[in-house]
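Lab manual, section 2.4: Encoding a predicted structure.

Procedure: take the sequence of the chain (168 residues), apply the prediction step described in section 2.3, and record the output as structure tokens. A sample record is shown.
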Amino acid sequence: MKNTEPLTICIVDDDELFLKSMKYFLQQKISSAVQINLFQTGEEFLKNITEKKPDVVILDYVLNGFNPHAMDGRSVLRKIKQTNPEMAVIMISGQNRIEVALESIREGAYDYVIKNDNVFFKIHATLKNIIKNITTSKRLKKYKLWLTGAILFLVVGVGLVMVYKLFL
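Recorded output:
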């Protein structure tokens, strides 16, 4: 995610009203530098994961609202982590059970948010942390690249000085 590239968020939930409401809320809260893609099934999302290249996925734990044989969020989370282990996934669910939350975190979710009256605000708070982590990681990579270049320049410079002195 360069400064010119928007943050890409994919929301996967079988509840169309939730999808559209969350998209609207996030567009108002984050900024115009965000691209939000909506998917009603895990299968549909996984078909598009390579093309969309999300930075963050907001994923419902139960995804069988209109297809009882659809993949559940846990299975989708496993596939996401196989594709890109670094991708941040926020698992959401109406289930207020600690076992479900722990299972999601163990499977690689960044956070588990319960769908209640505060779900939008909790997701926004989690997204702010994720964005900060992504930004910090990108800066660190830039500094590592710069430092590598500086060291290489220094080594080549010292080598040239040694060769120059050798032939004097």
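Check your result against the sample. DSSP finds five helices and five strands in the chain.
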